[in-house]
Design goal:
alpha/beta, Rossmann fold
Length: about 270
C-alpha cells in the first residue's frame, strides 16, 4: 500500500488521489450509484443472520449509507464512521428522509475517531486504502462485541483498468493488497478469520462515453486534458457494453470476499 500510495502521490500531488477531499468531490455520484444496492448485497444477508432488534452496529467507512440505511430498520442503532464530511451529510439526509432516528454519523478517519463498542462491526471496501492494516484491524477487533466483517473484492482492484493503465502509463500499476493479505495480517495480530467468497453485481453505469471517460480518467490518475479525454473516449467506446440507456463494463458480476471473525474470549470479560 505504501508503494501504491507513493505512486498516487507522484501522479496526483497534494493527496488529491485519496483521502476525504477525494471522496467529498465524488460523494454524490457514489451515492447515486450505490443507492439501494445494500439491500441486495450478500454481505447484508450474512449480517442479518446475527442481527436482532437489540443489535448495535458500527459501520466503518460507511460512505453515503449503503449498508447503514439497509440495516437501521432492523437493529437498535447504527454508528456510521466516514472521513468525508459530504458522505456523512448525505447519510444524515437519507436517514431523515427514511424516517430513521437510530443512525449516528461520526466524521473522521477510523484510526483517529473515538466510538464505543458495538455488537456487529463492518468495514466495506476500505482496507485496501489503509497504510497500517494491522492497526486498523486491531481497532476494529477491539470495537467488536460479537461479529466483525471486512468486505473486499476477491478480484484485483485493477482488473478492469489495468489495460488502460498500461496504455497511458507504459507499465503496470503498483499492485494493491487483496483479501488474502487481510487474512494474513489478521493472523499476525492473533485473529483467525473465516472467508466466504460471494458474487456481487457490477454496479458501474455511465450515461455516456464522455461520462465514462471522466470516471476512468480519475481512476487512472490522468491529467484533465483534451487529448487524454479524446483518447479515453476512443478506447472506452469499443470496450463498454450498452445496457438499455446506459453503458457498463463487460462483466455483470465479480467475486467478493467476506472476511469474518468473532472477538477473542478475552474481550468478553
Amino acid at each position: 500500500m505504501r508503494a501504491r500510495r507513493a505512486e498516487m502521490d507522484r501522479l496526483v500531488p497534494d493527496g488529491g488521489a485519496v483521502g476525504a477531499s477525494y471522496w467529498d468531490s465524488r460523494a454524490r455520484r457514489f451515492a447515486a450509484r450505490t443507492a439501494g444496492s445494500g439491500a441486495r448485497d450478500p454481505l447484508l444477508a450474512r449480517i442479518r443472520r446475527v442481527a436482532r432488534s437489540s443489535t448495535t452496529v458500527l459501520d466503518v467507512g460507511a460512505g453515503p449509507g449503503r449498508f447503514a440505511l439497509a440495516l437501521a430498520p432492523r437493529v437498535a442503532e447504527v454508528v456510521a464512521v466516514d472521513a468525508s464530511p459530504v458522505m456523512g451529510s448525505l447519510l444524515r439526509r437519507a436517514s431523515r428522509q427514511a424516517g430513521l432516528a437510530n443512525v449516528t454519523t461520526v466524521t473522521g478517519r477510523w484510526e483517529e475517531v473515538e466510538v464505543g463498542p458495538a455488537d456487529v462491526v463492518l468495514c466495506s471496501y476500505v482496507l485496501p486504502l489503509v497504510d497500517d492494516a494491522a492497526g486498523f484491524l486491531a481497532k476494529l477487533d477491539a470495537a467488536c462485541r460479537g461479529d466483525a466483517y471486512v468486505y473486499l473484492s476477491a478480484l484485483s482492484a485493477d482488473a478492469f483498468s489495468d489495460p488502460f493503465w498500461r496504455h497511458f502509463h507504459g507499465k503496470p500499476r503498483q499492485p494493491g493488497p487483496t483479501y488474502l493479505d487481510a487474512v494474513a495480517v489478521l493472523a499476525e495480530v492473533g485473529i483467525r478469520a473465516d472467508v466466504e467468497v460471494v458474487e456481487v453485481a457490477v454496479r458501474t453505469r455511465h450515461n455516456s462515453v464522455a461520462a465514462a471517460a471522466r470516471s476512468y480518467r480519475e481512476a487512472l490518475l490522468l491529467p484533465d486534458t483534451a487529448e487524454v479525454r479524446r483518447e479515453l473516449r476512443g478506447l472506452l467506446s469499443g470496450w463498454l457494453v450498452a445496457d438499455g440507456n446506459v453503458l457498463r463494463p463487460p462483466l455483470r458480476s465479480t467475486p467478493a470476499a467476506i472476511v469474518h471473525w468473532s472477538p477473542r474470549p478475552r474481550r468478553r470479560t
